Amino acid sequence: MSMQISTTRSERPADDARLADILANPGFGTYFTDHMLTVEWTPDAGWHAARIEPYGPLSLDPATAVLHYGQETFEGMKAYRHPDGSVWSFRPEENAARAIRSSQRLALPELPVDDFVQAVDALVEVDQRWVPTNDEAGEKSLYLRPFMFASEAFLGVRPSQHVTFMVIASPAGSYFKGGIKPVSLWLSETWTRAGRGGMGAAKTGGNYASSLLPQHEAIAQGCDQVVFLDAEESTYVEELGGMNLYFVFKDGRIVTPALGTILEGITRASIIELAGKLGHQVEERRVGIDEWRDGVASGDIVEIFACGTAAVVTPVGELKWDGGSTPAPASTELTFKIRQALVDVQFGRAEDTFGWMHRIV
């Protein structure tokens, strides 16, 4: 049985001229649509009070549990306008399934997959005019942020007895201004992202908060992003602050770090399928930092790329650390081939042979 979602339309939606200005240059995470969706949970009532209402500030008690114990999860998704004007999302059921796994790790209630997808669809349908239109090569989209947090006003250390799930949306431009360029990486040898048994596989704000200091250090070293090693041996490559990694070998093999303490990226999983269809064997295994350095030096590793919802796929360039560096790999050919194949499916410019796209409007 689907959720009953009430809708209260904004009395002051963005006018057409203002919206056109925003969509012409949306940036990322700067502007927000006219509405937001909210659903609440308690042990007695379960999920209830689903509603779409005008976008606006939240009123929280100073004792609200999430402010003290960080019990929250979130997802990142996009809605894409296709050439015929229809609006689609990309594998939303996978985001919903990952949200359930994150909820389990954070001791939050599970929002069923169908309800999650319905909630996202409902907000996009109401705010569909905020989904940008693209030219032939454009990559503007509507970024979707479903999130769940402990909303009980209580300072005891236990799972919250009141939880709020919300969806907000923000138009997003192309992630790369001035074209796609290889990102330079700083190897963090001091800080780790997650350890075995921790929350590395959950999409929760604490993981991103812990990456901010290392990311700041990376920028101070003239790099774009930080790359983390495993917490136990400081030997094996894990992921960037918010992106998964892939290594392309000269024999055509593609290797990506195995899951366990890293985030199960939806784009990551999609690339594994797509690369297989393109004829490449994909291995999920541990990748040592020395294998990276030596592989690039010897020419055995010919490409490295990173992936995530925002950037989709981006080539990796120089790797730097305190006292040394490894140059960018020799090629980006397969990186761009995979990237183009993926975005063409997402934006409706190529046939969706995988059944990944979900029509909303």
UniProtKB/TrEMBL annotation:
Record keywords: Amino-acid biosynthesis, Aminotransferase, Branched-chain amino acid biosynthesis, Pyridoxal phosphate, Transferase
A molecular-function term among this protein's GO annotations: branched-chain-amino-acid transaminase activity
Catalytic activity entry: L-leucine + 2-oxoglutarate = 4-methyl-2-oxopentanoate + L-glutamate; L-valine + 2-oxoglutarate = 3-methyl-2-oxobutanoate + L-glutamate; L-isoleucine + 2-oxoglutarate = (S)-3-methyl-2-oxopentanoate + L-glutamate
Keyword Repeat: no
Protein origin, superkingdom: Bacteria
EC number: 2.6.1.42
BP GO annotations: isoleucine biosynthetic process; L-leucine biosynthetic process; L-valine biosynthetic process
Keyword Ribosomal protein: no
Modified residues (N6-(pyridoxal phosphate)lysine): K203
Pathway: Amino-acid biosynthesis; L-valine biosynthesis; L-valine from pyruvate: step 4/4; Amino-acid biosynthesis; L-leucine biosynthesis; L-leucine from 3-methyl-2-oxobutanoate: step 4/4; Amino-acid biosynthesis; L-isoleucine biosynthesis; L-isoleucine from 2-oxobutanoate: step 4/4
A Pfam family the protein falls into: Aminotran_4
Cofactors demanded by this protein: pyridoxal 5'-phosphate
Family designation: Belongs to the class-IV pyridoxal-phosphate-dependent aminotransferase family.
Protein name as annotated: Branched-chain-amino-acid aminotransferase
Originating species: Nocardioides flavescens
